[in-house]
Write a structure and sequence with these properties.
Strand content: 35-45%
CATH superfamily: Hotdog Thioesterase
Radius of gyration: 15 Å
CATH architecture: Roll
Number of strands: 6
Number of helices: 2
Shape: globular
Length: about 150
């Protein structure tokens, strides 16, 4: 399989994922290699609702939301070419080796790079990184299961 370089916008993302504002954490998909890899973006603005409390006067994206964004990118990868995707949900089953390397702040653009490590019919293990300006902000190994809605 070859990589798809067609950019996928938020309308396509909304057609694949069940997430909605304020928890939709992927704005654009830059490339997809079905069942192998995805590269996606999140533009971080000061208007994000979590900045009201994390942290007043020093806004930083919560690490758990970076993990969630990586998982959503992984969900897009897993559901991308599934014919009955509107009847499926992808659930976390494990988060391993999570590391946070630098803060993500308003004005940053987060680049999610997610690669499939293992893929079974309903189980998947992904290696994921969130980068800002080429530097790793967060990384983790994420496992998930696909279930019927």
């Amino acid at each position: 399989m070859t990589s798809e370089t067609q950019v996928r916008d938020v309308e396509w993302i909304l057609s694949v994922l069940p997430h909605r504002y304020p928890l939709l954490l992927v704005d654009r998909v830059l490339e997809i290699e079905p069942k192998k890899r995805i590269v996606a973006l999140k533009n971080v603005t000061i208007n994000e609702p979590f900045f009201l409390g994390h942290f007043p006067g020093r806004p930083v994206v919560p690490g758990v939301l970076l993990i969630e964004g990586m998982a959503q990118a992984g969900g897009l990868l897993l559901l991308h070419d599934m014919p009955d995707r509107e009847r499926k949900l992808v659930y976390f089953t494990a988060i391993e080796s999570a590391r946070f390397r630098r803060p993500v702040v308003p004005g940053d653009q987060v680049r999610y790079e997610v690669d499939v490590l293992r893929l079974r019919s309903v189980y998947c293990k992904l290696s994921a990184r969130a980068l800002v300006d080429g530097d790793v902000a967060a990384e983790a190994v994420i496992s998930s299961a696909m279930l019927d809605r």
